[in-house]
Design goal:
- It is a single chain.
- By secondary structure, the protein is α/β, with parallel strands linked by helices.
- The chain has a single domain (62-461), classed as Alpha-Beta Barrel (TIM Barrel).
- The protein is 51% helix and 7% strand.
- The protein has helices at residues 4-28, 50-55, 60-64, 97-110, 121-124, 148-154, 174-187, 217-234, 246-253, 255-275, 280-283, 297-318, 324-327, 346-361, 380-395, 410-433, 436-441, 444-461, 490-504, 507-522, 528-536, 541-552; strands at 87-92, 114-118, 165-169, 197-199, 241-244, 287-291, 330-335, 365-368.
- Strands 4-3-2-1-8-7-6-5 form an 8-stranded parallel sheet.
- Helix 4 packs across helix 6 and helix 9 crosses helix 10 (255-275).
- The longest helix is centred in the first third of the chain and has 25 residues, at 4-28.
- It is globular.
- It starts with a helix and ends in a 9-residue tail after the last helix.
Length: 561
């Protein structure tokens, strides 16, 4: 691709420039840092030229190609945002279903295209609101969901078909989330073909980064893949699993290593699905990844591009995919930038730039933080600003007017190549250790994340990692108070509704349904059908999860590694 003579001329010219221009300039005006390193640990040069790409053996056809074609580095559709802007998602939910319903109506009026349900911690770990373990947590970090009745209230007046997609963020109860949406659709007179659901359902990352797991790892993996299998066979338009980098990176892994960990988890899910007799092209196109990079603008862009290439090659070369849709990875991202409680209006700049990076990197589904989110549940004003931020990037300023606008940048292409190679090397290391499941069980991932978190904090403490208004340019001022106040009556009202649901339902039907859930768990059948029947019968999430706990036991953490 490169003319060797021309590359040599450029290399020599750069050396002359460094000696005759950059060096003398640096003596008079020293660089602001001793070394420049990005968030993936790579030293950043002062200038990039075609010689850098030639040294990296860059090949346009092999490494980039064209949008909508293998290896999908430049995007998964030919027209990208010229034909359709990133799907505008909003992550929301708090308190009671009634309160969140009013909030969802407001978000849809602002232009939200997908509601991503935030559910409270008791819901995420399979406890009903009246359980002793739920005390003090009901409705605090998300909406409380105890049964199908809560979903009916939450989406009262909001048909699921009104949105382009609807989602629930929960990773350890994937079959229940799926069943709740199917059953709610039936109540609204809809079939699963009438609307699209996106489920996170990535339970493996809970064991290494987030912590809402409540079943032992191998049964939990089985349940997650039950969702993948059920959707592949019965609801092929739904998105059954989103493999998450976000929590792994933020816990300390860093973006490229965190991406490798998440891809290793994805391989684990895929292999389990294939063992059940599915073909790769039956389900791979509906798997998505939640990428994250909040420290470096250009790393965020390059990471999206590199991950699409790695995924495409995995699907084609390792798993034998033939359908291009299986090779084109749908990426979701959360636009943010390390929001701070100090001077929260500064977060608007951080979030805007983080969101812009994902747009330039070719994200498929996009949501972003609100400037006051570090303080508490976002205010309505902050959420409106966040939504308008996405709309401005999509419709003003020309950001979305051409496909992959940073493609061809010597720096971005060099960075994309480097991140791609880092991810591949880390995947090879994980495979040599026995794969993701073994690395999770033996503590490999947790150790790497913990070490990364220590390095990240040390860089912050030493001033190498700057947070404006926090460890540099800080003004001593009181931290602003959030206007949000949790409703103390939510837990009581949830308990009352829960009691009413239990009084009104057919108790015999519930007992039979829960027995079927336990029987499926003890055997090898897919657990989604009996869980769906239990949800239809108004069994509670806690009751269904207790049936699973009775068979599989509970997760017991091992804190050594």
């Amino acid at each position: 691709m490169f003319d060797k003579q021309k590359i040599e001329e450029i290399r020599q010219a750069k050396q002359a420039w460094e000696a005759g221009a950059l060096g003398p300039h640096g003596e008079k005006t020293p660089e602001r840092r001793r070394t420049y390193r990005n968030d993936v640990g790579v030293e950043v040069g002062a200038l990039y030229t075609p010689a850098d790409l030639a040294e990296a053996d860059f090949d346009y056809a092999r490494d980039l190609g064209f949008p909508g074609q293998y290896p999908f580095t430049r995007g998964i559709t030919p027209g990208m945002f010229r034909t359709e802007a990133p799907l505008l998602r909003v992550y929301a939910g708090y308190g009671s279903p009634e309160a969140s319903n009013a909030y969802y109506q407001y978000l849809l009026e602002l232009g939200a295209e997908e509601i991503v349900m935030a559910v409270d911690l008791p819901t995420q770990v399979g406890y009903d609101s009246d359980h002793v373990m739920a005390q003090g947590e009901v409705g605090r970090v998300g909406v409380a969901i105890d049964s199908l009745r809560d979903m009916e209230v939450l989406f009262d007046g909001i048909p699921l078909s009104r949105m382009k997609r609807v989602s629930m963020l929960g990773n350890s109860f994937g079959p229940l989330a799926l069943a709740l949406f199917v059953a709610l659709g039936e109540k609204q007179g809809l079939t699963p073909a009438d609307f699209v659901v996106d489920l996170q359902n990535d339970v493996l990352k809970e064991y290494i980064a987030r912590g809402t797991q409540f079943l032992p790892i191998r049964p939990a993996l089985r349940l997650a893949v039950d969702v993948v299998e059920y959707c592949a066979r019965r609801i092929p338009r739904w998105y059954p699993l989103t493999v998450c980098v976000n929590h792994i990176n933020s816990a300390g892994a860093g973006s490229s290593r965190g991406t490798a960990f998440a891809l290793a988890n994805a391989i684990c899910y895929v292999e389990e699905a294939l063992r059940r007799g599915l073909e790769i092209d039956q389900f791979a196109s509906q798997l998505t990844m939640f990428l994250d990079e909040r420290e470096d603008f250009f790393v965020a862009v390059a990471n999206l591009r590199a991950t699409r290439r790695v995924w495409a090659r995995l699907m084609k070369e390792r798993f034998g995919a033939r359908d291009p849709r299986s090779m084109g990875l749908h990426i979701t991202s959360y636009g943010h930038g390390g929001e701070t409680v100090h001077e929260p209006l500064n977060n608007i700049t951080r979030i805007t730039l983080g969101t812009l990076a994902y747009v330039l990197g070719g994200v498929t589904f996009l949501y972003n933080g609100s400037y006051d989110e570090a303080l508490s549940i976002p205010s309505r004003e902050a959420v409106r600003v966040a939504i308008r931020m996405q709309q401005i990037l999509a419709h003003e300023l020309g950001v979305a007017n051409t496909v992959d606008p940073l493609g061809g940048s010597y720096y971005v292409e060099s960075l994309t190549l480097g991140i791609h190679d880092d991810i591949v090397r880390e995947l090879e290391r994980i495979e040599a250790r026995g794969g993701a499941l073994r690395c999770i069980e033996e503590g490999d991932f947790r150790q790497a994340i913990a070490e990364g978190a220590v390095r990240r904090q040390a860089a912050f403490d030493q001033g190498e990692r700057i947070s404006v208004g926090v460890n540099k340019f800080r003004m001593e001022a009181p931290v602003p108070r959030s206007n949000f106040r949790a409703d103390p009556s939510v837990a009581q009202r949830q308990a009352e509704r829960l009691g009413q649901v239990k009084r009104d339902r057919d108790a015999a039907r519930v007992r039979a349904a829960l027995a079927d859930v336990a029987a499926a768990a003890r055997g090898t059948a897919n657990t989604v059908p009996p869980i769906l029947e239990a949800v239809r019968a108004y069994a509670t999430l806690g009751e269904i999860c207790d049936a699973l706990r009775a068979v599989f036991g509970e997760y017991k953490p091992d804190v050594t590694y």
